Amino acid sequence: MSVVRRARTVKPPDRLTQAVVIFVDVIQSSDMSAFVDLRLYYTTLSHFQATVDKLLESFSLWARAEGEDSQEPSAEINIRGDEVCVILYSGRDLLGEDLSTAVRFAVELKRWWRMHPLNLERIRQQSEPISLAAGIHF
Description:
Strand 2 and strand 3 form a beta hairpin. The protein is of the alpha+beta class. It contains five helices and four strands.
């Protein structure tokens, strides 16, 4: 079963010179899918995707992907199952700003996910929280 909450792909500009790529995924998701009830696994991924979606809105990244802030889109966003990929391509002049946005987004996503009620309940039950891994490439 594949969970796709919201995925938007836009054609990047014809001339792409600089980009910042953010990858985030749920750690040990494959292992989790093998030993937990399918509904629990689906619910976990749905909560993860909803958290990502809210943060993307908070950072106005959906607007960037749709070109609402300018005439040309400056982001590509894909959310599939247990992973998220965000590509920011504002151009060489704004690479530092895109990199700053990427770092802040990754840190905030890890914080929001750690404080999600699903994880707080796991901590209350003395279980390890479900963690995220994030990578940023530029």
